[in-house]
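Record 1 of the preview.
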Amino acid sequence: MLAVDTNLLVRIVANDDPEQAKRAASLFEAEQIFVPKTVLLETEWVLRYAYKLGSDAIARALRAIAGLPNVTLENPAELALALGWFESGLDFADALHLASSQRAGRFATFDTKFAKRAQALTKTEIVQA
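->
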């Protein structure tokens, strides 16, 4: 299995460097790929800030990568939950933090906007610190 860095995912999605995009796609075709959730988190950030993609386009791209038959994700159930919340309006990082914290039962934040949205989406108690 081959773990990949953010830049490979970004090349595939953005296709801004055709040579690197082709090399990245070749790896994805030839190898069993492992994608850590930290790589997905950084990929979302790069696509949003550097490439100015909207949340719908980013969610579609991440789901497309996640759905490839030879791709294994770190904690796929958490990622699926986070992507759903992201598509419902949560920031992707916040959604991933919350999804990764489900077993704790409670989640503390100073972010009141996030707390209100999160409380409507999960059974996890949201504590405003």
